[in-house]
Amino acid sequence: MHYNVKKETWRSCNLNSLKLSSQHLSQFWHRFFFPLQLFLELSFGLLLITSYSSLALTSKTLNKINGNVPYLTFDGGRTRVTNTDGLLGLSLSDGKQFSPTSNSSNLSAPIELPEVGQSFVDIGMFVPTNKSSITLSSLIGPPHNFWGDDDGDGQGVNGITSYW
């Protein structure tokens, strides 16, 4: 009988374990920790931004706000308007007045002009009939003067605009 007495040889590889480890660690760092670091930095930045805006929302005034609220008036300041029905209302030549809350017209019972030959121009409205947009300051200012402001602080820097 013949036995294989030859000693088995193993293939030898000379590996630098330190170099292999640092390359592997570098790839691991860039693959897993760099996105995590970026995520944490962005999260921290967002937390800073939101905390500053929340401070602005919770601010309080130390003193009582003094002054009078501006108001609408359609009779020269004798009566203060409590709703905007007057702005959106219309009046006919026979004295009938309609507002959004008192309007009972519908498709089967429309608002009819009292005299034959009248047109849209004969309907009295606060908003001019030839415009689709008007600034509230031009509507309530001179010559109409539908705006009342007892302390004179006005409508703000940019005014108020009404669209329809």
Notes on the structure:
The chain has a domain at 68-103 and 118-157. It has helices at residues 17-57, 85-88, 136-140; strands spanning 71-72, 90-91, 97-98, 124-125, 133-135, 147-148, 161-163. The N and C termini lie far apart (111 Å). It is elongated and about 120 Å long. It contains 3 helices and 7 strands, in the order αβαββββαββ. A 3-stranded antiparallel beta sheet has the order 3-2-4. It has a two-stranded antiparallel ribbon with strand order 1-6. It has a two-stranded antiparallel ribbon with strand order 5-7. With 164 residues, it is of the alpha+beta class. The longest helix has 41 residues, at 17-57. Keywords: Membrane, Transmembrane, Transmembrane helix. The chain crosses the membrane at residues 32-55.
The percent of residues in helical segments reads: 25-40%
Mean pLDDT: 71
Straight-line distance between termini: 111 Å
Count, helices: 3
Range of strand content: 5-15%
What spatial form do the alpha-carbon principal axes imply? elongated
Q: Report low-confidence residues grouped into runs of 5 or more.
A: none
SSE string, helix = H, strand = E?
A: HEHEEEEHEE
Over the alpha carbons, how many angstroms does the gyration radius reach? 40 Å
The total of beta strands comes to 7
Order of adjacent strands in the largest pleated sheet? 3-2-4
Largest sheet: 3 strands, antiparallel
Structural class: alpha+beta
